[in-house]
């Protein structure tokens, strides 16, 4: 009986984490460059039962479910046209580098703008880095080449620092940390933004399935609890 309670409770905990992940994916389905998360679930290792008297094997006992943590999918999102000259998207395995108080961080969100001082910045106001430091743009028409070279009014103003990441991990606000590596085969598309690589409909379906599974776990826990209470009351009346 206690085993059933434990299995049901562990399943509910797994579903709670899955629900949190799906809810976050849904909240960011409209965020440029967002990379969706997913949970990896598995069963606890089975425990082999043995006869206490002679040690003969009785059989395996499942101990419920657990997660292997949250994983991020870095699959390419669809590119959508915006025609804004400072909207940039990357095709391929690379990230834009940005300046933060904690050091260089990386993003796939290329919805950039000029700040009051002429620096190219993210939507949150963080300076975008070129190969020689923060990129500062004069007034004029901006063109960006596939290799990340930026020109203003026909004069070269710098080149975007692009990097592939090893051990990429999310830090919030659309930023990632990791070990930068040379970006090969990646190209920059001006006038485009990369859409989130999650599908809202798929995430909604997953949420409904998770909630149903969670409710089933709740009912199982309630049923076991009622049975245990009944057993305790009956034992109390014995004799």
Q: How are the secondary structure elements laid out?
A:
Elements: H1 2-27, E1 37-43, E2 47-50, E3 57-61, E4 65-72, E5 79-81, E6 88-91, E7 95-100, E8 103-107, E9 113-114, E10 120-121, E11 129-130, E12 133-134, E13 142-144, E14 149-152, E15 155-159, E16 162-172, E17 175-181, E18 187-190, E19 192-194, H2 200-237
Helix pairs in contact: 1-2
What's the short story on this structure?
The chain has 239 residues and is of the alpha+beta class.
What proportion of the residues is helical, as a percent range?
25-40%
The number of distinct β-strands equals 19
Unreliable stretches: 46-51
Shape: elongated
* Beta fraction: 35-45%
Number of domains: 2
Largest sheet report: 4 strands, antiparallel
Order of helices and strands: HEEEEEEEEEEEEEEEEEEEH
* Cα separation of the termini: 24 Å
Average residue-wise pLDDT: 85
Number of helices: 2
Computed CA radius of gyration, to the nearest angstrom: 26 Å
What structural category characterises the helix and strand content?
alpha+beta
Widest sheet: strand ordering: 8-7-16-17
Pfam families: Flg_bb_rod, Flg_bbr_C, LlgE_F_G_D1
GO cellular component, one term: bacterial-type flagellum basal body, rod
Protein name: FlgF: flagellar basal-body rod protein FlgF
Subcellular location: Bacterial flagellum basal body
